[in-house]
Amino acid sequence: MAGLHTVSHPSTLARAHVRRIGLDDLRFALWKGWDDFVAMPTHALFLIAIYPVAGVLIAAATFENGLVPLLFPLASGFALLGPFTAIGLYEMSRRREQGRDIGWINAYAPLTGRSAKAVGGVALALTLLFVAWLTAAMALYWALYGEARQDSVLGFLQEVLTTPRGWALIVVGNLVGAAFSLIALAISAVSFPLIIDRGTDAGTAIATSVALVQENSGTMVIWGLIVAGLLVLGMLPLFVGLALALPILGHATWHLYRRAVAP
Length: 263
Known about the structure:
- By secondary structure, the protein is an all-alpha fold.
- The longest helix has 30 residues, at 116-145.
- The chain contains 13 helices and 2 strands, in the order E-E-H-H-H-H-H-H-H-H-H-H-H-H-H.
- It is globular and about 55 Å long.
- The protein has a two-stranded antiparallel sheet.
C-alpha cells in the first residue's frame, strides 16, 4: 500500500502499531467482506440470525409496553453492540484466510479460549456505553416531554416531525447519538479482531483501536458512516436486511484490521 508507514509512541509500546489507511483500504475491506460472505453465506446467516430476530423482539416489546419513544434509541443503540455480535464472523474470516476449517462449530472459539476474558472486557465496555446511550436518550425525552406517553408510532412521528420540541429531539438526539457512536467506533474499530488474532488483553486492544482512529480520523469517520448507513438500510425492512449487512460488515472489519494494524 502506497505511502504506508507505522505509527508508534514510546508511552504505549505494549499496543500494536497502526498504519495510515485511506479510502482504497475501505473499498478493499468491503470487497473482501463481500467475498467472504459469498464463500460462507450459510455460516454467516446462521451466525448473525440472532441479530435481526433480537431487533424484531425489541420492536415488539416496545410497542406492547407503550415505549414508542424508546424504539429509535434501542434500534440505533443496539448497533453499538454490533462489533461483539460479529465475533464469529471475524473468526470465520481469519480461518478462511489461513486455509483452516471454516465450519460454524469453530466460529465462537474466541469466547471459550484464551481470549474469552479480553473479549468479555471489551463487550462490557460496549454494553455500558449502550446503557449510557439509553439513559441519555430517555433523559432528553423526559426533559422535552415530561411524563407524556406515546402509544402510537404514527402519532409520535407526527409529534416529532411537526413541532419545535420534536425538532429539538431530533437534532439534539442525533448529536448525542453521534457522540456515542464515535466512542463506540474508537473502542471497537479493531479491538475484537486484534484479540482474536493475537490474544491481547482488553486494555491493549482498546488502546490500539483508539490509536487507529486518532491516526486516521477522517478515514475512520467515513468508515463509521458506511457502517451506520448499511445498518440503517438493514433495519428498515423489519431488521431482516441485517442478515445481509451485518455479515458483510463483520468480514470487512476483519480485513480492515489486517490492513490497518501492522503484524
